[in-house]
Design goal:
Two copies of one chain form a homodimer.
Chain A: E1 2-8, E2 21-27, E3 36-44, H1 48-52, E4 73-80, E5 90-93, E6 100-103, E7 109-110, H2 127-139, E8 147-150, H3 156-167, E9 171-176, H4 179-186, E10 192-195, H5 202-209, E11 214-218, H6 224-232, E12 233-241, H7 245-248, H8 261-265, E13 269-272, H9 282-294, E14 302-306, H10 311-317, E15 326-330
Parallel strand pairs in A: 8-9, 8-11, 9-10, 11-12, 12-13, 14-15
Antiparallel strand pairs in A: 1-2, 3-4, 3-6, 3-15, 4-5, 5-7
Helix pairs in contact in A: 2-3, 2-9, 5-6
């Protein structure tokens, strides 16, 4: 059996290109007792992977050169010497950018049979969904009276932030980068949408969209979005810092906002968080999200690239705003 | 009775100058029933007053043009029609930059007779001391195992931060702007001192001073200090944001650090706070600080200007690093 894989060929400086990746075919050995052979059906590309392409200390080790790009995937057991995972089992896994792999089962999670499309377990009820939920509920301690601002609102995390906040009765202001994406988040029931690419002054646009001020800013972007949020935050506002995608591909450092004094003046709390720290609360999250999905109260949106060879293009598209909702590769 | 006063003459852009102030003599009326006449003996100049010179929404209203510069002062009752404040009473008050004023007593606090020099109630056991204590104990929730970094460590707040952290068993790294100030904070028992004006790379200097990393950064300065702290913070570090004096006199906005992504990567918490929110805990603080002072466990340091006319110079000196410890004006 051949496993087609995408490996990291070199570390990018600034925006990655196709040349940073290479496709490699690896012959898999025969199964040993206790092992299963998985054929991946879906794989995930996520913005956080950009950080792992760099050689630096972080919350997760860097990808290694000439090794597979790791990450979330969904697969099916096609050969089994492990009674816990019979042939036909659907599993989520972290095998990454490859068509097939062998596992002893320790890194596999059986998908529950609750009538939810399997790829949702890479998105709305997977890592991005847990990120949105933990940032809002555990970090920002969301209250129904909050006005929530979310940047990258049409992304995998952002669209879940919008919906969880609305389900809790909050007022939600969403920032996106195109009219098409604005349409998507309007469909999620948000109260106001800003297409940041068409406004000349983000602070003014945000102020107009939320004249009552912002209580919670779900930070996905950094840069001008953080600056505008700081200007419009209410006293004692909370800023869960999920990511700052505007900075990920900077070849040289980009200065931060000039209004950080607002943290002091408005008594704001910025708190960085990483979804890994909330994995132990996945069951609580998934029970709630599973119910919302089955009741039709949360919608998913996906942008799908077909075939492993297109995984680098899908990944690069994340930084060019090419995804609406979760970016996925169908294998 | 004439009250000599310093009024705000105009709002500064960038660094204030003597021209932003003017001295005014005001004839005080005769006392009414319930009133007292106070002769101020000490007045305080503090960095936060720079913010009040600007016309902007903040946690405290702006100073008004042609009105007295408000602020903390210590005075003595020299005439009294209020039995709660007999002649000779020593009181702390917020009457600001003036030699005399009339009060009905509502804004006066009697100084306890605990053998502490009266001007300490403007410093180490006053607002700056409470700021240091609340930032460390209430915001950062200091633990004995913490390594604490404090900028502007020889200032009124910073020198108390150093001492409270050492009294709790912490390792303390202090940043100051001169050799003389370095000597002062060494005398407070800190573990390492950085004279930031003599180092070429603050991140490297901080890293060398705290190879174990920083758990709590007490932020008084902003700019390069925040950048270095973000680089050297440990995971889950806490940053109580007390002020960012580097920005106060900027005529045009100064960009923030380019490494704010560290907030996310290291799961840091930055929390702005204002001492006003902790006034209700003053008694708890003062009981502790009073004991430390009486036991000689906390030292005070003062820089004193003489005479009301020198108050603007004392205030401007705060932004030129002219104070060691609390900057005071003796009236």
């Amino acid at each position: 059996m051949i496993s087609h894989q995408i490996h990291l060929a070199s570390r990018p400086i600034g925006m990655p290109t196709a040349a940073n990746f290479k496709q490699v075919d690896v012959e898999l050995p025969a199964l040993k007792e206790g092992q299963v052979l998985i054929k991946n059906t879906w794989m995930s590309v996520d913005p956080y992977m950009r950080g792992r392409m760099m050689e630096r200390k972080s919350y997760i080790p860097p990808f290694e050169i000439d090794a597979v790009m790791e990450g979330g995937a969904i697969g099916e057991v096609i050969e089994s010497l492990n009674p816990k995972f019979p042939v036909g089992s659907k599993v989520s896994n972290i095998s990454g950018w490859r068509t097939h792999f062998i596992s002893d089962g320790a890194d596999l999670t059986l998908l529950p049979a609750i009538g939810i499309p399997e790829q949702y377990f890479l998105g709305v009820i997977g890592m991005p969904g847990l990120t949105a939920w933990s940032g809002l509920m555990k970090v920002a301690k969301l209250k129904p009276t909050d006005t929530v601002f979310v940047s990258a609102a049409s992304g995998a995390v952002g669209m879940v932030v919008c919906q969880i906040a609305k389900l809790h009765g909050c007022t939600v202001v969403a920032s996106v980068g195109s009219e098409e994406k604005a349409e998507l988040v309007r469909g999620l029931g948000v109260d106001a949408v800003i297409n940041y690419k068409t406004v000349t002054n983000l602070t003014e646009a945000l102020s107009a969209a939320a004249p009552q001020g912002i209580d919670v800013y779900f930070e996905n972007v950094g840069g001008e979005h953080l600056e505008a949020a700081l200007n419009v935050m209410n006293d004692y506002g909370r800023i869960p810092v999920c990511g700052m995608i505007a900075d990920y591909n900077a070849a040289s450092p980009i200065p931060g906002p000039s209004n950080l004094m607002m943290i002091n003046i408005k008594k704001l709390t910025l708190q960085g968080f990483i979804v890994i720290d909330y994995f132990d609360q996945f069951d609580e999250f998934a029970a709630q999200m599973g119910q919302w999905l089955m009741e039709g109260k949360v919608k998913s949106e996906e942008t799908v690239y077909e075939g492993l060879a297109n995984a680098p293009e899908a990944f690069l598209g994340l930084f060019e705003g090419k995804n609406k909702g979760k970016m996925l590769v169908k294998l």
